[in-house]
Automatic annotation (TrEMBL):
Domain of life: Bacteria
GO molecular function: peptide transmembrane transporter activity
TM ranges: 12-32, 84-104, 113-130, 150-174, 186-209, 215-235, 256-273, 279-296, 308-326, 357-374, 386-404, 410-432, 444-467, 487-507
A Pfam cross-reference name: PTR2
Gene Ontology CC terms: plasma membrane
Main localization, broad class: membrane
Originating organism: Novosphingobium chloroacetimidivorans
Topology relative to the membrane: Multi-pass membrane protein
Keywords: Cell membrane, Membrane, Peptide transport, Protein transport, Transmembrane, Transmembrane helix, Transport
Subcellular localization, as worded in the UniProt entry: Cell membrane
Gene Ontology terms: biological process: oligopeptide transport
Name under which the protein is recorded: POT family proton-dependent oligopeptide transporter
Length: 551
């Protein structure tokens, strides 16, 4: 423990984050001791999911903040290769929810899928704490270390675990509310705050330990965070009011077979994450297959639900554009910050906490803004919000390039422009991500709920892979990042994205009509959830379907 008199900026930031984390946990304790079914006008189940997801994001984003630095500085990959591996990893994290969503829709139910995913995630994050040889300067020798296979296994477990957890926990949030409940967008924004509270704390604390004490310390803390999230989700089950149970009674043998499919997927991902070029082919083939299946399902529907599916496809198609730029934060922007930004002694990974901190600060403002504009009848439609999001993320890169060039190529980029790029990206994210989550659950047919959410994350995966390719390009032919080349690429993608945004805004009135929001009705699929027989244990634990009953 350092003497406080010798603390630098990074030490103080980590200490403040630790205090803030304890404060958030204290608030959670207050909510947990309340006996009422609601808190702050929302079901208590929302806050169970808030805290479970908070810890999951604590572990995921904490590890993400270190990953590209770990690849470049510990495993000695080139900057371009580190970016490509990072992009492949994050892409696979967003592909696997398609499988997890499908299995939950048809067999497991969302709750069991989330629990199983949490177990895989906790094991994967703890394996990340296993390091190989130290003090090796030759990249070829370093990457031949057998311990790198444990690293690939850890990534694979995290990827598959995210597949079972990510889409399904978001679906449970939607199930807590009726389709026409005006609190739905606000609920997803509150949930999104949980995501970003965890992301901010994890980025700071995991990143700080990893960069200042040792990589294994940071990754080990991420594993502990995931285990805590799993405990909260397990003990908070009654507050979910029976949501997320299997659609039909599930035989124990079939349930274990599905878990076996998950483990087999870990083996497949272990191979894929090491051969990034294969992932690009996989994305193309599976994307075409997913589009075909979605259209097949859409054309079986009546006119209004069919057009809602077309609106879903339009919104989902914009994901790669936004996330391809946004996800530079964990890749090329992190390496640029490490090499070319005047950081004032702050560890590089801590700068990735800026975005989630902004989310926590601005999410309540945006939630209140949407509700205020909705009451006035002037709230922008979901596709219009997507257009505004693209304008802001494109502009963020143009502002960053202008700021870096304004001081000259030989001068370190002022840190204020890192804060500005994250600010514009955050306000753009708040116009797209929580709005998109809400739109997916609202517009999708009930029998395709988790599949559509999985498709949403799948196209986010495409965006993450695109981000990796953009990051790889900043390394040039040698693989080593160049300041001039990086800024030239940032400028190009910024202008292209603003052009796409103008087209989206022009088409938004048409897509809004496809959504048919005015004729949305609450669904009543019947009391067909597994768990009916358990209703005597707790009248909110199983067998009740609050998504179709007044809360």
């Amino acid at each position: 423990m350092k003497d406080m008199g010798s603390w630098n900026e990074g030490d103080w930031i980590a200490a403040i984050a630790a205090i803030a984390l304890f404060a958030v946990l204290a608030i959670g304790g207050i909510i947990a001791t309340r006996k009422s079914d609601e808190f702050a006008g929302h079901p208590r189940g929302l806050f169970v999911l808030f805290y479970a997801e908070m810890w999951e994001r604590f572990s995921y984003y904490g590890m993400r903040a270190l990953l590209v630095l770990y690849l470049a500085k510990f495993w000695l990959f080139t900057d371009g290769k580190a970016n490509l591996i990072y992009g492949a990893y994050t892409a696979l994290v967003y592909i696997t929810p398609v499988l997890g969503g499908y299995l939950a829709d048809r067999y497991l139910g969302q709750r069991k899928a989330v629990f199983y995913g949490g177990v895989l995630l906790a094991i994967g994050h703890l394996f990340m704490a296993v390091e190989g040889m130290h003090g090796v300067a030759d990249p070829a020798v370093k990457q031949a270390d057998p311990a790198i296979n444990v690293f690939w296994l850890a990534l694979s477990l995290i990827i598959v675990g995210s597949g079972f957890l990510k889409a399904n926990i978001s679906v449970i949030v939607g199930q807590l509310y009726r389709m026409t409940d005006p609190r739905r967008d606000a609920a997803y924004t509150i949930f999104y705050m949980g995501v970003n509270v965890g992301a901010a704390m994890g980025t700071i604390l995991v990143g700080y330990l990893g960069e200042t004490i040792g990589w294994s310390w940071g990754f080990g803390l991420a594993g502990i965070g995931m285990a805590l999230g799993l405990v909260i989700f397990t003990f908070g089950r009654p507050a979910l009011r029976g949501n997320g149970e299997p659609p039909v009674p599930l035989a124990r043998s079939r349930e274990w077979m599905l878990y076996g499919i998950g483990l087999a997927s870990v083996v497949v991902i272990w191979l894929l994450v090491q051969y990034q070029d294969v992932i690009q082919t996989l994305l193309i083939i599976s994307g075409v297959a997913m589009l075909g299946y979605t259209l097949y399902e859409a054309f079986k529907l009546p006119k209004e639900p069919r057009e809602r599916m077309f609106a879903i496809l339009f919104l989902i198609a914009l994901n790669p554009v936004f996330w391809g730029l946004f996800e530079q934060a964990g890749g090329s922007l992190s390496l640029y910050t490490d090499k070319y930004v005047d950081r004032g002694g702050v560890p590089t990974s801590l700068f990735q906490s800026i975005n989630p901190i902004y989310i926590v600060l601005f999410a309540p403002i945006f939630a209140a803004l949407w509700q205020y504009l909705g009451r006035k009848g002037i709230e922008p439609s979901a596709p219009a919000k997507f257009g505004y999001a693209l304008i802001q993320v494109g502009l963020s890169f143009l502002v960053f390039v202008w700021g870096a060039n304004s001081v000259g190529p030989a001068v370190m980029t002022p840190v204020i422009f890192v804060f500005l790029i994250y600010l514009l990206q955050t306000t753009g994210e708040l116009c797209l991500s929580p709005v998109g989550l809400s739109a997916m659950t609202r517009l999708s047919p009930v029998h395709l709920g988790s599949f559509i959410m999985g498709a949403w994350f799948y196209m986010t995966a495409v965006g993450n892979f695109v981000a990796g390719k953009i990051g790889e390009a900043t390394g040039g032919e040698s693989g080593a990042m160049s300041k001039d080349l990086t800024l030239a690429i940032y400028s190009k993608i910024g202008w292209i994205t603003i052009g796409v945004a103008v087209v989206v805004l022009a088409l938004s009135p048409i897509v809004k009509r496809w959504m048919h929001v005015d004729t949305l009705q609450d669904r009543d699929p019947g009391d067909d959830l597994a768990g009916q027989a358990q209703a005597g244990i707790d009248n909110q634990e199983a067998g009740i379907h609050p998504a179709v009953r007044p809360n």
